[in-house]
Amino acid sequence: NAGVTQTPKFRILKIGQSMTLQCTQDMNHNYMYWYRQDPGMGLKLIYYSVGAGITDKGEVPNGYNVSRSTTEDFPLRLELAAPSQTSVYFCASSSLGGGAGQPQHFGDGTRLSIL
Amino acid sequence: EDKVVQSPLSLVVHEGDTVTLNCSYEVTNFRSLLWYKQEKKAPTFLFMLTSSGIEKKSGRLSSILDKKELFSILNITATQTGDSAIYLCAVLAYSGAGSYQLTFGKGTKLSVIP
Question: Interface of chain B against chain A, CB under 8 Å?
Fold first, then answer.
């Protein structure tokens, strides 16, 4: 069972370049999330989606865009890369039920450096 | 703004010691508190706590939630070098319109020395 798959695992970008971080899950989860993790700072929510066609901003959305055209895929786009976006990016998914939530399943992360 | 504070931020112990990690929170519309273990890559799920006073156990790890005092603890007994990791506490809250958000603490970095 693949779970949550992120590609690429590593990437170096120049300032001003754009790229898309891919995330796909095979668990038929409705909810998907993008986090960034900076050293010593925990995880911060960038964007999330409660189902295909529905996305919403998290805590730190500036400089990013997302789309959710299918249940499985939730790509994260950086349009004009900036050094402040150097971070490790995690995609996660969950299936919420009963109002109490379910644990999120995480991908292995994408380590992105902007130079 | 929802807030999750973990303490200590880092901890070094010897194998066999018992450790207690703390997590306090201030959130609106609390639903549950989750603990994750993060080694080199993705966080892996340990526990989800929804009700006060009910201890959850998995081997040498246990956790309990106090919804009145707004905190949780994660205990690890007889620590092993394989327990070395960052332990993340996260709180799930209802954010309206059928949506939920998870707010993470900064984590506690545990190092277990042989």
Answer: 4, 9, 31-32, 34, 41-45, 48, 50, 88, 90, 92, 94, 98-107
Rounded Cα gap, residues B89 and B91, in angstroms: 7
Q: Write out A77-105 in H/E/C secondary structure.
A: EECCCCHHHCEEEEEEEECCCCCCCCCCE
| Separation between Cα atoms, residue A88 and residue A35, nearest integer Å | 8
Q: What is the mean pLDDT of residues A19-46?
A: 91
A31 vs B: CB within 8 A: yes
Express each pLDDT in A74-108 by its tens digit.
999 998 999 999 999 999 998 864 344 567 889 99
Distance CA B32, CA A18 (A): 37
